[in-house]
């Protein structure tokens, strides 16, 4: 349970950091980041495998680069499905860049939290 809470907190912090780096990626409150982290986890658990399955041919043709597009789509879908105002992604480019930055930042933060734990 502790690992789950630390991962959730780390992802929420990564959302806040990403909103400061990527223009068009807006997180207004930390509460919105916490909710967005939960919604992203649900989207990644339920919808992303379906997208990955149907996009497998194009992913193979692009040598895996289409995975970046899938990540951007799941992040954009997270902003659409988020029930709390204060999380918005304005453009597709912001979703794509945000997914890349969010992946890097959350990996670093979660690594640091696991080392400290």
From TrEMBL:
One family name in Pfam for this protein: Phage_holin_4_2
Record InterPro entries: Phage_holin_4_2
Superkingdom, natural source: Bacteria
Transmembrane segments annotated in the record for this chain: 29-47, 54-77, 89-113
UniProt entry keywords in alphabetical sequence: Membrane, Transmembrane, Transmembrane helix
Entry annotated with the keyword Manganese: no
Entry annotated with the keyword Nucleotide-binding: no
Protein name per Swiss-Prot or TrEMBL: Phage holin family protein
Protein source organism: Cyanomargarita calcarea GSE-NOS-MK-12-04C
